[in-house]
Design goal:
alpha/beta; UDP-N-acetylmuramoyl-L-alanine:D-glutamate ligase; 10-stranded mixed β-sheet; 4-stranded mixed β-sheet; 10 helices; 38% helix; binds adenosine-5'-triphosphate; binds magnesium ion
């Protein structure tokens, strides 16, 4: 089944969570039965869209026995998955909750490299869809990926007139900015990283985003700033969207929920500022859920009227 919305995850992972009483060096630590979940930006965006009763095609790379586990997890989520097989093992990230301190420790394994055979297979899969309206690239992307991949995506986007939405960081984000996108959604650190700094202040952020939009390659620059919401800059101006205060249980997947909320509304023909408003509500709704539980549409819509918009430009 072809879909209006395509998500791409180039380096997905299995998130393996367990609980220990307390960390003690040199001793064997007794762990609870591990809980396994599929992880990776695009997969999460597809998951939230599914919660919102919206179909998407979820393209991701997987390999080795861990890749088989990932495929199985994605299958049980009921996603419309298109798997690209890799010779590399899908990475496993490890999350340990220490009961004694109530602290969570998150161990992230290195991002998988994407070889030419794999990115070409991803492109072929994308090109099979003639009617896509949204192409979403989300999650970590290996530095080694060829710029040809982004060039090809640029051509596809122009040819099909679909909207390219990107939530990634580092050198991949840099390459995309020069190739062009409808919307980029880095968080504040990721956006600041583009300018070789850790945290830009809001004034600098808006200035840099405005310059980026003026170059006419990126239509909408959306920088998420956790509990402080997000700043959107496009040719109509600059806006600070402020979420309501919520009782935060887990921030895992907040950014992906935000992207899904935006696409859900854009797909209904709603204009960008109101689409981002639902995105902010969706991100905040996810933080009110525990663990990996992502928000429902009802939860996001409940917060929607409480999201405030302040015009900056
Ligand atoms: N503590 C919080 N309280 C309320 N809302 C939050 C909080 N953290 C995140 N959000 C909501 O989620 C959105 C995205 O969050 P954030 O900026 O943390 O994204 P991110 O760093 O990309 O997250 P991810 O870890 O999923 O990649 C925010 O714009 C906001 O709407
Ligand atoms: Mg993020």
């Amino acid at each position: 089944m072809s879909s209006q919305i395509i998500t791409i995850t180039l380096s997905p992972c299995i998130d393996k969570s367990t609980i220990v009483e307390r960390f003690v060096p040199e001793k064997k630590l007794k762990c609870s039965y591990p809980v396994l979940e599929a992880g990776g930006g695009g997969i999460n965006v597809s998951r939230v869209l599914k919660n919102f009763k919206t179909n998407s095609e979820c393209i991701y790379i997987s390999g080795g026995y861990t890749g088989k586990i990932l495929d199985n997890l994605v299958f049980h989520e009921g996603l419309n998955a298109k798997t690209i097989s890799s010779e590399q093992y899908t990475r496993e990230n490890f999350i340990v909750f220490e009961k004694h301190t109530h602290l969570q420790f998150r161990f992230g394994m290195p991002i998988n490299k994407v070889v030419e055979k794999e990115w070409r297979a991803v492109l072929n899969q994308i090109k099979k869809s003639k009617k896509s309206s949204f192409l979403v690239l989300s999650g970590s992307v290996s530095e080694n990926i060829s710029p040809v991949f982004f060039k090809e995506i640029e051509l596809f986007v122009k040819k099909t007139n679909c909207k390219f939405i990107v939530d990634t960081a580092g050198s991949a984000l840099k390459k995309i900015i020069t190739a062009g996108a409808f919307l980029i959604k880095p968080n504040l650190n990721e956006f600041s990283g583009l300018y070789g700094t850790k945290t830009l202040n809001y004034k600098e952020l808006v200035k840099k985003a405005k310059q980026m939009v003026a170059k006419a390659k990126v239509e909408n620059v959306l920088v998420s700033i956790g509990k402080d919401g997000a700043i959107l800059v496009n040719k109509t101006g600059g806006y600070h969207l402020i979420p309501p205060k919520v009782k935060v249980k887990s921030t895992v997947g907040a950014g992906d929920s935000m992207v899904a909320g935006i696409i859900y509304n854009l797909n209904k023909g709603i204009e960008i500022l109101d689409a981002v408003k639902l995105g902010v509500a969706a991100g905040s709704a996810t933080t009110a859920n525990s663990g990996m539980q992502l928000c429902s549409l009802t939860e996001a819509k409940k917060l929607l009227p409480k999201v405030k918009i302040k015009k900056l430009l």
